[in-house]
Amino acid sequence: MRGIAYGQIEVESDGLTNEALAKTYYPNINPIGQVTGGAFGMAERIVGVVGNVAEANLTDPSAPVRYYLTEQSPFALENQTLVIRTTRPQDAVSIIPSVRAAIAKAAPNVAIQEATTMQHVFDRAVGPARDVRTLLGMLTGLALLLGAIGIYGVIAQFVARRAVDWSIRVALGLAPSRVVSLVVGHGVWMIVVGIAVGVGAALTLGRFLSALLYGVTAADPIAIIGASIALLTIGIVAALIPAIRASRTDPALVLRKL
Predict the structure, then answer these.
(1) Average pLDDT over residues 89-114
(2) Domain spans in the chain, listed from the N-terminal domain onward
(3) What does the pLDDT read at residue 78?
(4) For residue 35, what are the β-bridge partners?
């Protein structure tokens, strides 16, 4: 729509904006119907607000964007993107030859640069980050396994060094459940100290991984609490094995070896 009088301003075109532009320039009023300075010196009336989309990298913040119809542009666009939706996303690859044939029939002078699926575009965009995430996941699993083995080894050594002490206590009437709680308590104390040191190191060094994070920060409390609970749970399970073994030790056999 061109040359439409809107109040005292000659509106040259109508256009759409994204949510980022609406929140930035019209935070407290309805952007619909507002007239702004458009591109190429044309006054533009906002007739709709659409959701934010990734214009460059997926991790970039949403930038204010305005959209125009092709016929509103004073020059012809050399490159255009045609989006086709299917009711069955899994059939997207199979319909590409049919789409190419339909475009060639309707516009034989148009050259198709690339025909692909949005899933492929998305996989290509997040490819490096996904590989790093997979690697970090494997390293995290390995770290948990090594941590569990280390806790088990330390608690087992602690129980072995105090085998005589536990045997005497059991002989004097200490309940086996009490032995388990004492051994596991010692392990929990070490785990809590390790978690405190690890959280401090994560908060200090987390900024180096901020480029790989999306939707969370390096100091995200939910992620830190979840990781701490997971480490504490794994540590308690690892400490239970030598603790239960210590509670089942026969005091007579241990004292007989002295």
Answers:
(1) 82
(2) 4-78, 84-116, 126-256
(3) 64
(4) 45
Q: What contacts 24+ positions apart, CB below 8 Å, involve 164-169?
A: 164/254, 164/255, 164/258, 166/246, 166/249, 167/249, 167/250, 167/251, 167/254, 167/255, 168/251, 168/255
Mean pLDDT of all residues in 163-178: 78
The reported pLDDT for the residue numbered 9 is: 45
User: What is the pLDDT at residue 102?
Assistant: 87
- Mean model confidence pLDDT for the chain: 77
Tokens at 233, concatenated: 């749970």
Specify the pLDDT at position 110: 79
State the CB neighbour count (10 A cutoff) for residue 24.
13
CA distance 117 to 110: 20
Q: Which two tokens stand for residue 1?
A: 């729509």
> Which DSSP symbol is given to 210?
G
* Residues listed for the chain: 258
Extract the tokens encoding 230. Answer: 């997971």
Cα torsion 122, 123, 126, 131 to 10°: value is 170
Residue 59 CA to residue 214 CA, distance in Å, equals 6
In angstroms, rounded to a whole number, what is the distance separating the alpha carbons of residues 116 and 124? 11
Q: How far apart are CA 112 and CA 127, in angstroms?
A: 25
> What is the model's pLDDT at position 6?
39
Q: What is the mean pLDDT of residues 122-143?
A: 79
Structure tokens at 176: 């086996």
Contact 233, 146 (CB under 8 A): no
SS3 111: coil
Instruction: Give the H or E element holding residue 44.
Output: strand 43-50
